[in-house]
Here is the input.
Amino acid sequence: MCGIIGVFGTDDSLKNTILGLHALQHRGQEGIGVAWTDGQKIYCEKRLGYVSEFAKTFKLTQSPISVGHLRYSTTGKSEKNNLQPIVVNGIDLKIAICHNGNLTNFFSLRKSLEEEGAVFTSEMDTEVIAHLIMKAKGDIISRLKFALSKVKGAFSLIIMTPSALIAVRDSLGFRPLCLGRLKNAYVVASETCALDIIGAEFIREIEQGEILLISKEGIKSEMLEKPKIKRECIFELIYFARPDSHIFSRDVWLVRKELGKMLAIEQPADADIVIPVPDSGLFAAIGYSEQSGIPFSYGLVRSHYIGRTFIEPSSQERASDVRIKLNPIKSVIKGKRIVLIDDSIVRGTTSRKIVKMLKEAGAKEIHMRISSPPIKFPCYYGIDTPSKGELIASSHSVEQIKNFIGCDSLGYLSVEGMLKVVGDFYENGGFCTACFTGNYPIPPEDAEFISQLRLFRDY
Amino acid sequence: MCGIIGVFGTDDSLKNTILGLHALQHRGQEGIGVAWTDGQKIYCEKRLGYVSEFAKTFKLTQSPISVGHLRYSTTGKSEKNNLQPIVVNGIDLKIAICHNGNLTNFFSLRKSLEEEGAVFTSEMDTEVIAHLIMKAKGDIISRLKFALSKVKGAFSLIIMTPSALIAVRDSLGFRPLCLGRLKNAYVVASETCALDIIGAEFIREIEQGEILLISKEGIKSEMLEKPKIKRECIFELIYFARPDSHIFSRDVWLVRKELGKMLAIEQPADADIVIPVPDSGLFAAIGYSEQSGIPFSYGLVRSHYIGRTFIEPSSQERASDVRIKLNPIKSVIKGKRIVLIDDSIVRGTTSRKIVKMLKEAGAKEIHMRISSPPIKFPCYYGIDTPSKGELIASSHSVEQIKNFIGCDSLGYLSVEGMLKVVGDFYENGGFCTACFTGNYPIPPEDAEFISQLRLFRDY
Amino acid sequence: MCGIIGVFGTDDSLKNTILGLHALQHRGQEGIGVAWTDGQKIYCEKRLGYVSEFAKTFKLTQSPISVGHLRYSTTGKSEKNNLQPIVVNGIDLKIAICHNGNLTNFFSLRKSLEEEGAVFTSEMDTEVIAHLIMKAKGDIISRLKFALSKVKGAFSLIIMTPSALIAVRDSLGFRPLCLGRLKNAYVVASETCALDIIGAEFIREIEQGEILLISKEGIKSEMLEKPKIKRECIFELIYFARPDSHIFSRDVWLVRKELGKMLAIEQPADADIVIPVPDSGLFAAIGYSEQSGIPFSYGLVRSHYIGRTFIEPSSQERASDVRIKLNPIKSVIKGKRIVLIDDSIVRGTTSRKIVKMLKEAGAKEIHMRISSPPIKFPCYYGIDTPSKGELIASSHSVEQIKNFIGCDSLGYLSVEGMLKVVGDFYENGGFCTACFTGNYPIPPEDAEFISQLRLFRDY
Amino acid sequence: MCGIIGVFGTDDSLKNTILGLHALQHRGQEGIGVAWTDGQKIYCEKRLGYVSEFAKTFKLTQSPISVGHLRYSTTGKSEKNNLQPIVVNGIDLKIAICHNGNLTNFFSLRKSLEEEGAVFTSEMDTEVIAHLIMKAKGDIISRLKFALSKVKGAFSLIIMTPSALIAVRDSLGFRPLCLGRLKNAYVVASETCALDIIGAEFIREIEQGEILLISKEGIKSEMLEKPKIKRECIFELIYFARPDSHIFSRDVWLVRKELGKMLAIEQPADADIVIPVPDSGLFAAIGYSEQSGIPFSYGLVRSHYIGRTFIEPSSQERASDVRIKLNPIKSVIKGKRIVLIDDSIVRGTTSRKIVKMLKEAGAKEIHMRISSPPIKFPCYYGIDTPSKGELIASSHSVEQIKNFIGCDSLGYLSVEGMLKVVGDFYENGGFCTACFTGNYPIPPEDAEFISQLRLFRDY
Here is the structure.
C-alpha cells in the first residue's frame, strides 16, 4: 500500500513527481517523500501528511531526475523515520530507493546483516535492499541483481542515481508499475493516473521480473530471472487502484463494472434501487444496475473534506469517520428496498454503521452485495489488511456476517465469478488471490514470519 | 455563500456546532468561527482554513449554547479579521452574530453610523447589524426588530446571547435556514445536512420574516413584518446546497435530477453516453440519462484530496485545480459521442479545460448540457458570482460560448423549464432568479451600489 | 508596560519599526503589532510572541509611515484580540493607535459610550480613545484634543493616519516618549534605545501634554492643556527602562548606579563581596561596590535563553524560571559574606529562591540590599504590579520580609534617598512615587475603580 | 562544539536530561535530540531549534535512563538529519550515542566501511562509531574498546543501552565530561552547570581515556589505553564553557578573571574605563580592572532576546546581529578613553563593528585587549573555528588587525601568559593550544584531511 513514481529527462522532474504523487494519494496517506539530484549528490525531503500540504511549503528546485513515494505503513509504526525514499549518499554509489510491496524474508535478512555489523536506522524492509545494494560490487544493474536475488516477496521498485532512473518489478509481478513518456522525458509510476495528471503518454507496463534502466544512453531492459508464473494482486483491481487507471492490462473501472454485473447474476435481489457505498462501490453498482435492471440511484452523499476510510490508522478515528463522511439522502432511501453495493468487507464495522444509518433513514430492506469474495486471509505482499483475527470473514460465516452487519440479506461474489471476470479462471493463472483463498504464492519463510511481521508493525 | 449553525440546550453544543459546520463546509471554505458562553460572557475562536483542521487543535469546552459560521468572502478580503461570528461583550448586552447573505444598503448605513462616531473594525456588512443592535433599546427582540428594519438585502441570521439562541430570516427568504431537535436541544442551521450529521431531527424551516427565540422558556416566534412575496434563491437548489439537504420545501437532489430530465426534453442530443462533471452535474446527469435513455457513465474521476472549484479565491489556483482535480477515464471516453452535464457555467474557463481534456482522451463528440439557464447577472444577495464583466453569458451568445468552450454543441435549460421543475412558473412566484433574468427583488440602492460592493471586495 | 514606536518619512519605515520594537522588547513580551499604509488605507498585523519570531515570517512591505506596539496586558487577558495597534479604517478617517499607559476612567467612559450604542470588540482601554476620536469632528488634532479631554490617566500615544504620524504625552507625563531623526525621517519611541538600534539621532523628549504632528508639512507642536505639575514614573528609571536609554532627562544606567551608591550610604553592610541579581541589580551593585569599597563580583550567571521574570504571566512558570534562569557560581559564593543587590522586591518569592540557592552554594551571610523603597501600592498608570494583597511590602514589615526571604539582613533605600538621587526632593516635584508612597497623582475615580480594573484584568 | 548529557537511575531521567540541555544550550544552538527507553527499545526525538522551544511541545515520558545532545555542526550541514543521538535498535544491541568532539580519521574510516557495504545515512563522524560498535563482538565494553581503538581525534561520548549508561573520554581528554549524583541517580554531562540546574552534586570529572559504565550493578571504570599526555582544550576555558562551570579541575570564571589580570600586566593601557564586550569579556574585564586600577564600567548593553554570535551559521546573519544585539551607552562612552576587553578575535568583523559603534557613540580612544593569544590555526578537535583563510590572525599581524578593526591600540595576551595562568607552562603540559600555536596533538592523517573536512562541512 504505497505509491511510487520517478521522472527522468526534464528539469521539471521534481514538480512532475509531486503532481504524480497527488494522483497516487489514494495509495498512501501517511507521508510523502521525494528525492532529487544536482548531478553529484542526492537530496531528499520527507514529511508526514498529504501531498497537497507538502506542495504548499516545499521549495521546488530543478533536477533532471526525481523519485517520489507515498507511504502507508505495512511494516513499522507510522512515523517520519519510516518514510521513503531511502537515500544513501555513499562515497562510490549514491542512490534513492522507493519500494511498493513487502519482503517476506526481511526479518532473517536483517538479522544476518546485523550480525555482520550492519546498522539499521529504520524499521522498513526496504532498508535491507539498500544494504544489499551497497554490499554488492559492480555496476548498478549487477548490484541490483545481487541484492534482489537475496530478497523474497513483493517489490515494485523505483530507484534513482545522480544519472539514471531504474524501475524493477518482482518475478511474480505482485504490484503494478507502468512506463510513460512526456516529450523527451520518461515517467515510471505505480498507476497510469499518475501519467495522466502530468500529461504523459502511457507506453507499457514494466514486465514481471524486469529491470528497466533509463539513462542518457536511453532505455535498457534486463531480466532478474526467467519468470514462470504471474501473480498480480487481484485486490488492486477490486479495491486499491484508482478507477481511471489501467493496470495489469485492464481498465480498472471496467473490471469493477463487470464484477458488478457478475454479482447481479450470482447474487440477485428483489429491490427498488441499487445504491453504491461511495466511491468504492460506484462502478460495481452501475454494473449491477445495468445487469439487473434495478434503477441506479445515489443514496449516500460523501463529504469532500476527508480521506479514505480503509487506510486511516486508528479504529477510533474510523468510528467517527463513517458518521462525518457519509450522509444518507432520506428521500431517496425512505420506504425503499435497497441493493447496497460495496467492493469488500474487511472488519465489517463500517458496513454495519452504514446499514444502521440507512435503516434510520427509513430503508425498508437492505440487500448488501459485495463485488468480491470474503477476505479470509491476511496479505503478506503489501496490502495492509489486518491480522486474521480482525478479518470478519476468517471466523464468521456469511450468515453470521449478515447478522453482525444488520442487513436483510448479504451476498458475496464467488472466487470463480471473480476470476471469470478478470479472465483468469485456471489454477496456474496470473492473479494472486491469497486474501480470498489462502493460496500464498510465496509461503511464509517459517512459522515465525507472521508474528515477526506483526512485531515490527506494532511497536 | 456562508454556512451558519446554532445549538441550544446541551452541554455538547460546541461539539455539535463544529460537527454541523463540517457538514456545511461546502458553503464556505475560507475560514471558520465558533462562539460559546459560560453564562456570563461570550467567547470566540476564529481561524482561516477547513473545519477538519480547526477541529484537530481546537480545545472543546462545555457550553449550553454555541453558534458557528463558515465564511467565503462576499464583501471584504479573505482575511482573519473578516471571519464571523461577530462578538460584542457589551456591558449590558453580550451577543454573537452569524450572518449568511448580503446587505444591499451596507455602505450607506456604515457611512451614517460612522458619522455618528461608530468604530468599525472589519469590512463585513454584518458589523452594521451589530452596531444597530447595540444602538437600540429594550429586549433583544425589540433591538433586533429595530436593527433589521434599517437594513435591506438578504440575511439569514443566527445570534446567541449568554442565555438564548435566535434565528432570523429576511422577509423575502433569500437564504435557507432550518430548525431541528436533538433530544431536549434545538439546532438551527443553513441546511438539513447539518442536522443529519448531529443526529438531529428536522422540524421545519424558519419562515421568511420570522424571528425565532429559543431560551429556557421554550421557543417563541415573532415576525419582522408581514411578508408579501417570497424570493428564495433558486441557485441554492441548482448548485449551492448539498444534494442530501432539504431546503425551500424541496429535496435538493430530486430538483437536480428533475432539472436533468427537463434538460433532456429541451435539449436532446444524439450521443452514446451521458457523463456528469463530478460532483456538480451528478444528479442532473442521472436525470438526463433516465429521460433520454442514453446510458449513464462515469468518465471523469475526481480526486478526493481537494475542495470545490467554484469557491476557491484566485484564478491562477483555479487553473491548475482543474487538472489536478479531474481525470478522464480514457477507455470510457475514447471514440464516444458524449453528453457532458454540468449545473452551470460561470466564466467558462473550467468547462473549456474539461472539454479539452475529454477531446485529448479521445472523445468523438462532446455535447455539453447545462441544467440551468445562462448566468448573466451578478448576485447581490450573497452568492459570490463574479462581476458582470467576468460572467461569460452576460456578454456572449450561446453560440459564442460553445466556441469558447470548444464543445460540439451546447444547450442550456430555459428559465421556463427551470421554473416548471421547481413548480413556480408565475410572475409573483417564490424564487429569486436575478442571476438568470436580472429581475432583482431588491434593486441596488443607487447607481454606486455595485461599484461600492466591488470596492470593498477588492482591496 | 508597553513599548511603542512610529516612523515617518522613509519607505523603510516598517523595517525600522520592527527593529525598534526589538530594542523595546523588555517593555512587553506577550505580543507585537505593526501598522502601515499604502497612502489610502491602513494595514495591520498582530501576533502573540516575540519580535524575533515575528520578524522571521512577517513579509515586509514599503510604507512611508509605520507604527508598532509591544504588549503586556495591564487590562484584559493575554490574547491576540487585545493586541495593538487599534486600527480603524473609517470612511472619513483612517487611524492606527498605539498606547502605553492606563486610563483610570476607562470603565465609566466605556459604559457611557456603550449606552449610546458603541460596539467594543476588545477589553483594551485604548479602544475608548479610538471611539472618542471617531466621534469627534474636525481635523485630527481637534479630534484628539476632544478625545483626550475626556480620558484620565496615563497615556503616551503614537498614532498614524495614511499621511501623518502623531505623538502625544499626557499632561503629567507618566510614560516616556522621545523624538529622533534618521536622515529625513522622524522616529518617535518609548525609549532612546529604539532610536539607537535604527541609527537615529535623539532630538528631544515629547513634552508633558504635548501633541506632536509630523506630516509632509513638517513638525507641528500643540499642547493639550497647560500642564501644572509633572509626574514621571520613577519606576521606569529604577526598573523598567533599558539601562542604555535616556528618559526623563536622565541616563537610566547612571541613575541606577547612583541609587546603588546612596544605598551603600543608607544601608551599609559588613561583607566580602557585592554581587548583583543579574541583570536588574547590575548598575546598583557597581555603585554600591564603588561607594562601599567592597569588591564587586559576579556570582550569579544568567542563561541567555529566556526572558524577564517579572513580566511573565503565570506564577507557576515564574517558579521554575528562577531555577532555570540563574545559576550561582559556587567558587565565588562559598564561604563569603555577600551583599546581594536587586532593584526591587515585588512578591518576594523570587528573592527567596535566589537566597536559598546562594545559601546552598555555601554563602556564609547574605545581606540583601534593594535600590528602591518597599513597593506598597499598586500602580494605576500602566506598570503591571500585582494587586495590593500580593505586594509583600504592603502587608509585611522589613523584618518580616527579611524572614520570608531568608537573608541575614535586608535594607531598602529610603524614599528620601531615592528622590535625592533623581534630584527631585520636594512636594510638588516631578515624579510619581505612588507605588512607594500611595500618593496617587490621579486618584481612582470612585471606590469601585480598582475592583473594576481587576475585573477586566481577570476574565 | 556540542553539549551532551546522560541520566541513569530515576524515572525522571528524561526531564532532567532536558533541563541539563537547557543549561548547556551555549554549547550548541542548531538542534536538540534526546533518547529514552522502555527497557526494551530505545526511542528518540530530534528537532532543530532551542531547548526551550523543544520543551514546550515535547511529551515527557518516564524512563530509567536518558541521554541528550545539542548540536552545532562541525561536520555536515545544519539539518535535522545530522542531529544526535544516533540510535540503533539492532536485533542484538540497542544503543543511543551522543558525541562531543571530532574524529580526524573519519573520512578514511567511512570509506573503508562503505567498501565493505556499510550504509551511512548522515554526514556525522559519529555514525562511524556506531558502525564500528555494531561490527564488534562481545559485551558493550569490548565493543566500545574495539570501536574506539580504530578512531582518532577528540571524543567525549555518552552512550545508553536499555539497561546502562556509559561515558567515555578520549585518551588526550580534549573535551570535558563530568560525573554527578542526584540522590540514587547518576548524571554525566559536558559541564557542571548541567549538574547544577538539576540539583545534582558534582563527584568528579571522567578521566582521560576512561570508560565509565553505570548500570544496576553500580559504577565500573575501565581504561581505553594508558594515557601518556593530556591535551585538554584551552579554548573551553577561554571562551566556550559557561563561566559558572568547573572543568579541567578549574573554575572557568576564575581562569577568565586571572587571564584578564595577566592581560593587564602584559598589555597595559592609559585609559579612563575598562568595559567588557558582554558577556564574553566580562570576567577578564573585571580582572583587568582590578589589576590595572582603571574603573570597571558597563558600556555595552546586550539584548536578552537573541543567542550567541559566534556560533550562528551564516555571515549575513552575523552582520545584522551585532547591531541588534549590542547597544553602547553613550553617556558611559562619550569622551572616554576606553579599554575594551574581549576573550578572542576570530574573523575580526564583529570587533570592527563594535569599535565603530563605540566611536560613533563618542569614545575618545579605544584600546582593545584580548584575553587570549591570536587564533591562527583551525581546530580539528571539535571547535568550529573557520578555515585558516578566514582567521584574521593567520594572515595578519597585530598591527594589521588593529587597523582593520579600527581601534587605537590592540593587545593580545601571550601564549606564555595564558599558560602561566592555567598553570601549565611546559612543553609536555596538559593543554591543547593548537589554535594558537599550530602544535596539533593529533596531526591530520594525510594531506587531504582538511579539505575533506571542509568538503563534508560544505555541501
Notes: The two ends of chain D are 19 Å apart (CA to CA). Chain D has a mean pLDDT of 89. The interface with chain C takes residues 19, 22-23, 25-26, 50-52, 193, 196-197, 242-244, 246, 251, 253-254, 279, 282-283, 286, 290, 295-298, 301, 303-308, 323-324, 327-332 of chain D (CB under 8 Å). Chain D has two domains: 2-231, 251-431.
